Amino acid sequence: MIKNVAELTAIRDTYANKIHFRKHDAGAEVSDGNIKKHVLICGGTGCTSSKSVQIKAKMEEAIKEAGIQDEVQVVLTGCFGLCALGPIVIVYPEGTFYSRIEIKDAETIVKEHLVGGNPVKSLLYSETVKGDEILSLNETAFYKKQKRVALRNCGVVDPECINEYIGTNGYMALAKVVTEMTPDEVINTILESGIRGRGGGGFPTGRKWMFAAAQPKGQKYVVCNGDEGDPGAFMDRSILEGDPHALIEAMTIAGYAIGANQGYVYVRAEYPIAVNRLQAAIDAARREGLLGKNIFGTDFEFDMQIRLGAGAFVCGEETALLTSIEGNRGEPRPRPPFPAVKGLFGKPTIINNVETYANIPQIILKGADWFKSMGTEKSKGTKVFALGGKITNTGLVEIPMGTTLREVVEEIGGGIPNGKKFKAAQTGGPSGGCIPASKYDVEIDYDNLIAQGSMMGSGGLIVMDEDTCMVDLAKFFLEFTVDESCGKCAPCRIGTVRLLEILTKITEGNGEMEDLDKLEELANYIKSASLCGLGQTAPNPVLSTLANFRDEYIAHIVDKKCPAGVCKNLFTYKIDLDKCMGCGLCAKQCPADAISRTDYVAEGHKLASMQIDASKCVKCGACLPSCKKFNAIYKG
Amino acid sequence: MKKKMTTVAFNGTAEQLAKLDELIAKHKGEKGALMPILQGAQGIYGYLPIEVQKHIALSMDVPLSEVYGVATFYSQFILNPKGEYAVAVCLGTACYVKGAGLLMDKLESLLGIKNGEISDDRKFSLDATRCIGACGLAPVLTVNEEVYGRLTPDMIKGILDKYNK
Amino acid sequence: MENMVNVKINNREYSVPANSTILEAARYAGIDIPTLCYLKDINEIGACRLCLVEVKGARGLCAACVYPVNEGMEIQTNTPAIRKARKTNLELVLSAHKKKCLTCVRSTSCELQKLCLEYGVDEDHFQGNNNEYPIDCSTASVIRDNEKCILCRRCVAACKNMQGIGVIGANDRGFDTHIASAFELKLGQTSCIGCGQCIVACPVGAIYERDDTQKVFDAISDPTKHVAICAAPSIRATLGECFGYEPGTDVEGKMVAALKALGFDGVYDMNLTADLTIMEEATEFLGRFKEGKNLPLITSCSPGWVKYCEHYFPEFTDNISSCKSPQQMFGAMYKTYYAQKVGLDPKDIVFVSAIPCTAKKFEVKRDFQNAAGVPDVDVAITTRELGRMIQQAGIDFKALKDEKFDDPFGIGSGAGVIFGATGGVMEAALRTAAEVIEGKELEKLEFDDVRGTEGIKKAIYKIGDVTVRVAVVSGTANAKKLLTAIKNGEEEYDFIEVMACPGGCVNGGGQPTQPAVVRNNVDLKALRASVLYTADKKMDLRKSHENSAVKMLYDEYFGAPNSHKAHEVLHTKYVKRGL
C-alpha cells in the first residue's frame, strides 16, 4: 500500500536501476546488484502466438540447469515493435537482438551467450550484425528514426510488475497532479501541449477535458476507447499489453482533472492478453492504493473497470462505444450533445483512446514544452503506426509527427520487398484513403493526411506495391464497412451497399463510365450525410482511389482490364509456349482440368508445351507456383 | 450478416442455470450490465439460445427483443453452437468444380445434419465456407484448424473416424 | 417569458425559443424541413438524415430534428446541395423499398411517397439487391411487411418507449438490420397486445391493420344475413380525417348517413352500451368496494389493456372488471335480447363494430365472448377501414346529409360519448356512482381532475360518506408505472381506468394516420377529445343511468345490473397469459 509520495519515490529509486539496465544506450556502466543479465522476451500477441511463452519457459529451465538463475532475470515484456521478426529475445546490458527464435534456440542462447559470453551470431537480427561488430537494436534503421513516447515502456518493463513501472517514474505524474496541481493546471498543461486525439479525428484532448470539467459537479466518467478495429492496426493492443499502468495512471489523472471518480476501459474481446494484463494491473494498482479512495493520502478517489467489446467496429466511434457500455446495440447517437456534456449514462464524459492516454503521464512530468517540441505546427508529439502490407518491417513504429511517408516506408519500414515499386499507402484503415507515390514525401500529420483525402485514423499504415489493384482495394475496404455499418442511418446503411455494388460491377467487368459519376455522387453524399464517423469516412477509400488512380477505374470499365491482374473477371491465365518446358506440373495442380498439352515443342525443349483452356479456368492461380522455375504462366 | 439460428434442442443443465443466475445476481443493479451478462452466458452455454436470452430478459426486466437486438448486433455472440469439431467445406469456385458439393452431400449423410447445423451430441458442426485460398488442393475441407485436400467423397468417412474416437 | 435566441434561417433573422431544435425553429419561421424518422418526444434519433441542413461553422450537414439552436446560429435549409442530398437520400431509401405503391394501403397517405413527389425523385436511380422478408400476418390485428420498412424505427419507439412493451426491435446489423421480434418470432407468438400504435407511427405501408372490409361487404350483399353495425364513441371525432376534414371535426351525422348508405340493416350507437357498461361496472365497483375485494377495480373497455394485463401483470387479472367491453356487450345484447325480441336466429346476424382500435379485432375472437352461442361480434373494423369502405362504395361523404342512429339502440348519453377519451369512463362512472350513492343529482357533472391528455391522472373523490381513490392512465407504459407502484405497495387505489393507447380511443391504433408533420405540431389527442367533450356538453342526456334505452334493456331483459342474466350475457373472464 503506497500511502504517500515518499513511499512511491522509494520504490521508484529501487527499481529505476533495473530499468536503466535495459536502456542499452545508457552508456555508463550500470549494475543491477547480483544480476548480470536481463533477458527480455516479447510477450505481445504476435510473439506469443509464435510460442514466446514456451521459449521463456525453456530458457528459464536452461538457466536453472546452468546454475545461473541468480545472475539472470528473465522478463516477459510487451511488444518490441518489429513483429515481422518475432519471436524476439533481447539480452541486456548489451542489447543484443535475437530474432525469429525457436524453442530449440533457447538452450543455445543460454549456453553460448549467457554462460559463455558470446552472442549467437546466427540467431541475431541480420541488420545488427556488421562484420564482427554487433549493433544494439537502437542502431538499426528500424529503431533509429523512431521516437518512443507512448511506447516507451513496451518491450522494456514487465507489464505485470507494478514496481517496474514505478521504476520508470510511473505514477509520479499522478502523484504530482493530486498533490501539487489544481485540476485547472492539469487541463492547461494538456491544452498547452497541443496533444490531439490519437484515435482518429484528432480533436484537441485538452479541450475535451476542459468541456467536461466545466460541467456542473456531480457524476462524471472517464472512458478509454480501446476498441481498436482497423484491420491490421494494433497500437492500442501493444500499449495495453506492454504498459497497462500508463493507461491507469493517465485515466486517473483525467479523473482528477475533470472531477470524475469512475473510469471504464472498453477493450476488444479479441485481445485476451491485453485484457488479462490490464485487469492484473488494475488489481495491482488497487492493492497499492493507486486506485480507490484517498489516493496519495488526499481526498481524491478514482476507480475503473474493464468492459469488453463483442465484435463491432462501429463501437470505436465514441457515441457508439458509450451506447455499448450502457448495454445496448452499439449504435451511434447524434452530436450535439457531445459526450463531454452528456455522455455515458447521460453524464459528462471524456473519451480518449489508449495511445492518447499513454502520452499523458509524460506530458505532466516533462511538461507541455517538451511535448510541443516534437512534431509539426498543428500536430504535436509522436504517432504510433502499425506498418503492414507490402513492406519489409511489418510491425509497430512510433515516429515524431512530420516524418515523411518515404522515411517511414523506406527507412524505418525497410522498403518494399521483392524489388517491387511503392504504389500507394493507405492510412486510417477503412476510414482513410490512399496516398499515391507522387505524394511520397508528404509529412505525416493530421492536417496533411486530411488534405490528401485520407486521415490519421488510429494509425494503420498499409503499403501497396504495383501488384495491388486500387479498385479492388477500394472494394475490399468497402466490404469491411458494409459489414460493420450499424444500420441506423440510411446513408451509410443503404449507401455503402449501393457503392459496393457499383464497385463490384466494375471489378467484374460490367462497369460503365456513368458508374464513375454515380460513385462520386454517392460517395460524397454518404460522406456529408451520415450520422457518425464510420459513415462519414466510409467513402474515403473510393474517393481517394478515384482521385489518384482514375485511370485504373477506366481500364476496368473501358478496356475491361485489371492492370494489376487482381480482378478475376478481367484477366486470363496464359502459358508462354516458348518458355514452357512441358513438365506438366501445372496440369496436376489445376482443380478444373483446364490445362492440357499442345503438340508444340519449343526450340530446345523435349516435351510439348502446355496450354490453358480459358473457358474451363476458374482463375484460382493454383498453377502459378508450380511454374515458378520457368515462369511460363502469366496473366494477360 | 444475418445470424444463423440454431436447430439444436436446448439441453441446458440445472448447474448451468445456477451459474447463469449467479452471474445475473453479480451484476444486479449495475448499469449497462446486459453485455457482460450475455458474454458470461455465452461462456456458460457456448451460445445464446432463446431459452437463455428469455431467462436473462425476465431476470433483468427488459424486453426479449432488446436482448436479442444486442445479441444479433455484435458478431461475437452466436445463436448456434459450434461443434467440438467444426467441419467446413470450401465451396469456392475451384473446390466446387472439383466436386466439393459431393463432399458436402457425403458429410450431410454421414453426420445426419445439414449445412449450418450441429449434431445432437454437439460433436460436429457442418458449414460451407468461401474460398480459403487452398485451390491447389481442391476440393478441401477443414476440421477446426486442420486442412484436408484433394478429397473424394469416399475419403470422408476416414476423416470423420479420426475425430469419432 | 421564455428565453429566446436570435438565429438566421435562409438569411432572414428570427427570434426563437432557446431550447428549440433547428426543426422547431424553422417551423417557427414557417419553413417545413422534411423528416421521416422524427416523432416528437417519441423517436428523436436523427437516423433518417432527411432533415439535414447547413449550419455555418459546423462540420458536415446537421440533422435539424435533434440539433439545438444557439445564439447567432446561421442555418440554410434550402440550398442546392441540401435539395440534392435529400433527393439522393430518398432515392437510396427507395432502392431498398418494395415499391408496390399502386396497391399499397398507404398510397396517398404515405410520407415517403409525398416526399418523393416533392423532390422529383427518380425511383430507379439506385438499384441493387435487397433482403427478402416474409409478411407477418400472424395476429388478428397487425400485419407487418418488412420489405416496405424504411427503418425509421418509429414503430419500435412507439412499442418500446411509448407503450413500454417492446415486442419489436432492431435485429441484426448494417444492411441486414430489420425490425422484428426476438428470434424472428411472428408477432402472434409474442406478447404483442395488438394496440396498433406501431401502425399509426409508421410513415409508410410497412405496418397495417388486418383488412376485414371484404367480410362486411360480403355479409351486406348476402340476403340471408341481417347485418348490423354499431359505431364507437370516438370515431365520429375522427372519421372525417379520412375525407380531408381537419382533425377535431365532429361528423356523427354524416357517419350515420354513410353507414346507412352502405346498406347495414341497423346502424347503432355504441354509446348505448357504454352506458350499459357504466351500469354494470359501477354496480360491480360498489359491490367490490363494500366487500373490499379485488380492489382496485380496473376497467375492461380497452382490449389492448386487457391483453397487456394478461401478459405482463397476470396477478392483476382478477382486478379487471368482468364487464365485457361496450363493443362486446352490444353484440351480446343484440344476438340475445334483440334477436329474441324480433325473432332472428343469432346465426343469421352479422354484427359489425366500427372502432378506433386494432386490438378489438383480437377481442372479437376471444373465448367467453359468445353469449348466444355464436361470437358476440363478428367483425371489428377500424376507422380507417370504414373510411375505405365508404370510398369504395362511391359514397360522397362530404355531400351526405346528417342522419340519426336507428331505434331502439340509437340513444347514448354524454357519459357514453366521452368513453372515447382518456378519463371518460371514469367520469361517466363517477357521474352514476355519485348519484346512486348520494341519491341526489350532481350539481356539476364535469370531473375535471380526470380530464386531459396526461398519461397518469390521480384524484380522490368523496362520494356520500366514502372516499374513493381513483387513477386514470392511458398508454401501457403508464399502466406499467402505476401497477408497479401498486405492486410495490407504494400507492393504493380503489378504481382505475386504463386505456392502452395514450390519450384513449381518440388516439387509437385504428384511427386515421396522420403524418409526422401533423403529429409533431398538433395535439391530436386533445383536438379529437374536444369533439367528444363538446358533444357531451351539448346533450341533455349526460348520465348513463338516465338512458331510457338502458332502462328498457333492464326492464325487458336483464332485470338489474349484475343480475344473473346480466352476468351471462354482459360479463366475461380473463386468462393469465404471462410472457
Topology at a glance:
The complex is a heterotrimer of chains A (636), B (165) and C (579).
Chain A: H1 5-21, E1 37-42, H2 45-49, H3 52-65, E2 72-77, E3 89-92, E4 96-98, H4 105-115, E5 129-130, E6 133-134, H5 141-144, H6 162-167, H7 172-180, H8 183-193, H9 205-214, E7 221-226, H10 235-242, H11 244-258, E8 262-267, H12 272-287, E9 303-308, H13 318-325, E10 349-353, H14 354-366, H15 368-372, E11 382-389, E12 395-400, H16 405-412, E13 422-427, E14 433-436, H17 446-451, E15 460-465, H18 470-484, H19 490-507, H20 513-529, H21 533-537, H22 540-548, H23 550-559, E16 573-575, H24 585-589, E17 595-597, E18 610-612, E19 633-635
Helix pairs in contact in A: 3-4, 7-11, 7-14, 8-9, 8-11, 10-11, 10-12, 11-14, 18-19, 18-22, 19-20, 20-22
Chain B: H1 14-26, H2 34-45, H3 50-60, H4 64-73, E1 85-90, H5 93-97, H6 100-111, E2 124-129, E3 141-143, E4 146-148, H7 156-163
Parallel strand pairs in B: 1-2
Antiparallel strand pairs in B: 1-3, 3-4
Helix pairs in contact in B: 1-2, 2-3, 3-4
Chain C: E1 4-9, E2 12-17, H1 22-28, E3 52-55, E4 62-63, E5 74-76, H2 80-95, H3 111-118, E6 142-144, H4 154-162, E7 169-171, E8 178-180, H5 197-201, E9 207-209, H6 213-220, E10 226-231, H7 252-262, E11 266-269, H8 271-291, E12 297-298, H9 303-312, H10 326-342, E13 349-355, H11 359-363, E14 379-382, H12 383-392, H13 414-417, H14 424-438, E15 456-463, E16 466-474, H15 476-487, E17 495-499, H16 516-519, H17 524-538, H18 548-558, H19 564-570
Parallel strand pairs in C: 1-5, 10-11, 10-13, 12-17, 13-14, 16-17
Antiparallel strand pairs in C: 1-2, 3-4, 3-5, 6-9, 7-8, 15-16
Helix pairs in contact in C: 8-10, 8-14
Structure commentary:
The complex is a heterotrimer of chains A (636), B (165) and C (579). With 636 residues, chain A is an alpha/beta fold. With 165 residues, chain B is α+β, with helices and mostly antiparallel strands. Chain B has 2 domains: 14-73; 85-163, Glutaredoxin (3-Layer(aba) Sandwich), CATH 3.40.30.10. Chain B is built from 7 helices and 4 strands, in the order ααααβααβββα. Chain B has helices at 14-26, 34-45, 50-60, 64-73, 93-97, 100-111, 156-163, and strands spanning 85-90, 124-129, 141-143, 146-148. In chain B, a hairpin with a 2-residue loop joins strand 3 and strand 4 (146-148). Chain B is elongated. Helices cover 34% and strands 13% of the residues of chain C. Chain C has 3 domains: 4-78, Ubiquitin-like (UB roll) (Roll), CATH 3.10.20.740; 125-209, Alpha-Beta Plaits, CATH 3.30.70; 214-570, Rossmann fold (3-Layer(aba) Sandwich), CATH 3.40.50. The mean pLDDT of chain C is 96. Chain C is globular, with a radius of gyration of 25 Å. With 579 residues, chain C is an alpha/beta fold. At the A-C interface, helix 18, helix 19 and helix 20 of A face helix 2 of C.
